[in-house]
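Narrative summary of target 7.
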Amino acid sequence: MGIQLTDLVEGKEIGLAALFDKRIAIDSFNWIYQFLSIIRQKDGTPLKDEKGRVTSHLSGLFYRTTKLIAAGIKPIYVFDGKMPEFKRATTEQRRDIRAEAAHEWKEALTRGDLEAARKHAQRASELTEEMIRDSKLLLKALGVPAIQAPSEGEALCSLMARKGDAYAAATQDYDSLLFGCPRVVRNLSITGKRRRGKELVSVEPTLILLKDVLENLGIGRSQLIILGILVGTDYNPGGVSGYGPRKALELVKKKKTLKAVLSEIVWDFDVPAEEIYDFFRKPLDVDYSTEPGDVDEDAVKRLLCDEHDFSEERIESALQKLKEERKSQKSLSKWL
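Modeled conformation, tokenized:
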């Protein structure tokens, strides 16, 4: 769900060409949940193979990744590790929401309301260990780094960008800014279209610079973390009662420190605010490699076509286009 800072944070629309030859650290779970939610049939049923296993995530991951690589972007996928103990309540709440959505999906199907069925089905998306394993296998076959984070994937993406191992973090959430990510790319998609209600609207990648956010708000990163905590994070959902983004900004600008802010509010969450603050302030690190490998076309086809019944013709076509684009990029790089 992430921190809701839309009213305070502005970014700049960019073209994919602006990201050419740049390493982009991707919050894998953020994207995979997108694929599971969006890639569905009219009644909300996700794509499945002949054995009934969901394949929406693999379809989205394969086509978006190959197109990003063809555009000259160097994706690095980062997977969530062990979640913080203080996120458990949020995780259980989300599990209940998915269960309720699944029930409403079935009821909508029973009464023949396909529009409602699809809406409820999108909220019922569930990510399993098998899906995570197959996603990593696919990325390995494509020669794309798949890094296991010690904790939140978004935290490690942010740290990688801070260290210069990635140009930016790609995610839809604003949490990366609290983790100190210098550049965040939202809407990193090739299609340029997104469904809003019944309409398809044009959406371009948006680059958000942390230094611009802090300058525009007139605060430092520590105050941004406190602001996020007031508004509500995955670790204190809903935030402090009575505090939206603008009211929270006024308070942090006035009080400046977490201790001073806490003296002005009622903190009624089980997890101490200081623990959340420290988690954002010092993301956990781990050894990793960002070097890409070679595409193993046979491994890609074994996983997608042999194991999960993808069209071999379509997969081969996408791999061929990828090969041609990579060859063109190598020729171009000689002149740069």
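The chain has 14 helices and nine strands.
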